[in-house]
Every structure is written in structure tokens, then in C-alpha cells.
Amino acid sequence: MAQNCRLLGIRCSSNPTLHNAFSRNWTSTREFPSLEAYATTSPAPLTRTLKVTGATGFIGSHIVSQLLEKNIKIRAVVRFTSKVKTIFPDAGSRLEIVEVPSLLDDHTEALKGVSAVIHTAVPGFRGSTMGAYEGILNIINQAISLGIKKITVTGSYLNLFDTDLKQAYGDKVITEKDFGSIELADIKPQEQDGFFVYSAAKTVTDKRLLQIARENPDVDVTVRDPSFNGFRSSRSKLPLFLRYHSDRD
């Protein structure tokens, strides 16, 4: 099965990282269409619904905003409904909001009737693989069991490297075919710091998604691997990122 680096046609208006980053597309014959193609193909956009998780996050909120501009109906799955209504007060019937407290919960009702899933929700750096691994796979497996054929997941550029990130500062050319070498058994949340656990869990999730795509050749699975994203709380989180890389040239 070919692995092709390609773009989804989703550009974050104030953050071009989402457009320019690596992506992995695992599919037998088809490609995931751009937003423009999705919005203009028949039937009319409002007869289709996309499920978007993490709709109040930095990347997720930009995706929802652009889908609304394309007149595509969205089912936003969030932990708290009030925040979505504040961000998108004028969305009206184009935006359906479903509250699901955890990635590990049953998402069956939230998945029913949707044409595609865009999964951007992340659990944060809190010493557990449950959200970043089991949670993501929980949603993806439920989607496939319901016959959904288009799935997009926000990964991380960290998936491309070993956890020491030495390759990121070397001269090796990294492509979409590269993975970090860490495996699920190597992750020990009680012994490792949260950032390590989070990045390692994202890597093993990426590997597992490739296996799922191979097991389900009729399903298009795309993993977007953006690098460093700006966020609303940049000033509070940037020191964490810089501290982690403080020993790098």
C-alpha cells in the first residue's frame, strides 16, 4: 500500500503550519478531497455532515470555521458545549454540538450519519497513554465499524523521529515514510515525563493507524503531522517547549 505525502486543502488562516506540514495518506485507490472539492461535489454540502473532534482547540476551531464558510454541516464533539457556542455564535443549524466527556467514551451516537471524521482532540501532557493512544483508536475503530470511509487525524511531527529528536537536528532527509522507533511497550507513564509520554503515544498511534488502514483498504485514513503550532495560551506553553529543547543547538 502506497504512502503518499499530500495536503488536505485545509489551511489555518493565521497559522500556515497546518497547510505546510507533513501528512500521511494510507489508501488503496482514492484520496481524501480538499475542502473545495468536498463543498462543491453533489449532493449539496448541507446534505453531508462531518464530525470534528477538538472543535474548540486551536487547529480544530480553524477547521470548523472554514468548513462553515464552505457551507458544510458539522457535528462538533466537545467536552463542554458552552465554549463552542461562544466561538461560533452565528453558526445556526450548520453546527450541531455533541458533548462527549472523554475520548474513551462511546461515540456511536455522535458518529451516526456522518460522511467523514476529522479528529483533532488531544488529551494533553498528563502522564497517560489513554487519551493519545486508546482514545484516538477508540473513535477511529467505532467510525470504521459504522461504515465511515474518510478519516483524518491530527498527528505530530514528533511521530517522524525517535523521542530524543536527534534526527531532527541531523542531516537525514525525513519523509512521510519515517516513524520513530518507540513501541507501546516502551511507554511507562509512571516513570517518564508527560511530554515524552505524549509524544511517544502519538508515534505509536500513527503506526497503529497505518495497520488499521492496511486492514481496511476501503477506508481512506489521513494523518496530518503539523510541527509547532501557535495556540491561544502561547505565552504560558512556549517556555515548556523551549525548556524541553534547551539542550539543543
TrEMBL record:
Pfam families in the cross-refs: NAD_binding_10
Boundaries of every NAD(P)-binding domain copy: 54-156
Key words, A-Z: Oxidoreductase
Gene3D superfamilies to which the protein is assigned, alphabetical: NAD(P)-binding Rossmann-like Domain
Family: Belongs to the NAD(P)-dependent epimerase/dehydratase family. Dihydroflavonol-4-reductase subfamily.
Domain of life: Eukaryota
Name assigned to this protein: NAD(P)-binding domain-containing protein
PANTHER family with a match to the protein in the record: NAD DEPENDENT EPIMERASE/DEHYDRATASE, STEROL-4-ALPHA-CARBOXYLATE 3-DEHYDROGENASE, DECARBOXYLATING
MF-aspect GO terms: oxidoreductase activity, acting on the CH-OH group of donors, NAD or NADP as acceptor
Oxidoreductase recorded as keyword: yes
InterPro entries linked: NAD(P)-bd_dom, NAD(P)-bd_dom_sf, NAD(P)_dehydrat-like
UniProt keyword Oxidoreductase, yes or no: yes
